[in-house]
Amino acid sequence: MRVLVVLAGTIVGVGGAWPSFAQTAPKGYSNKLAPYVASPARVMDRMLELANIKPGETLYDLGCGDGRILIAAVQKYKVNAVGVEISPRLAAKASASIRKAGLESKARVIHGDFVDVDPSGADVVYLYLSTRANEQLRPSLEAHLKAGARVVSHDYAIPGWKPTKVEETEGSQRHMIYLYEMPPAKQ
Fold first, then answer.
1. Tens-digit pLDDT string for the chain (187 aa)
2. Global pTM?
3. CA neighbours within 13 Å on the CB side: how many for 125?
4. How far is CA 54 from the centre of its chain?
5. Of the candidates 71, 63, 14, the residue with the CA atom closest to the CA atom of residue 34
6. CATH of the domain at 164
């Protein structure tokens, strides 16, 4: 079974066998690399569609916030999901939402720092981080993601990579979606 991983540090949920690479978030952590801003539902849905996620695949949401992407991906696409979230409050909220939805066997939240997580189990990595955070994360993604894995990023490109597809959403507030396939084309 593949797992959708949203990384955040310490595993917060309960359930089946999950990766043991979680770490506790450092005291005095900072959200300077990625402040919490939720993706609008229409953008989240389109990002998951563009990633062409399939049943049984594993999704990692790095900086999962309240866990809405994890829950939507499990419910709509029948995937496994792992979220990583550095904020103890948001990690607990995401875990509670997963429990409330009855999805503990399919989704898990790790309370910790996404830069310390090994994403090698991911088929799809979901990002809504700053350009600086994407740049910091890039070497790990290049080193650990398998060929064919997809990375989908909301609003911020990954410096040094050429996207497979770029899409601008419709509506009063426009958003950019960047899709990459591993190994990424270099710019």
1. 333 333 333 333 333 333 333 334 444 444 455 556 677 788 889 999 999 999 999 999 999 999 999 999 999 999 999 999 999 999 999 999 999 999 999 999 999 998 888 999 999 999 999 999 999 999 999 999 999 999 999 999 999 999 999 999 887 788 999 999 998 877 7
2. 0.81
3. 32
4. 16
5. 63
6. 3.40.50.150
Length of the chain: 187
Residue 106 maps to a domain = yes
- The runs of H, that is alpha helices, within the chain are 41-50, 68-77, 88-100, 131-144
**Tally of domains in the chain:** 1
Residue 61 structure tokens: 């949401």
Structure tokens at 109: 């939240």
Domain assignment of residue 21, yes or no: no
Asked if the structure places residue 25 within a domain, the reply is no
| Residue 107: closest CA among 91, 88, 87, 127 | 91
Q: Residue type at 37?
A: V
State the residue range of the domain holding 123: 10-14+36-186
Kindly list the distances between the CA atom of residue 106 and the CA atoms of 15, 70, 73, in Å, as whole numbers in the listed order: 8, 9, 10
In a domain, 26, yes or no: no
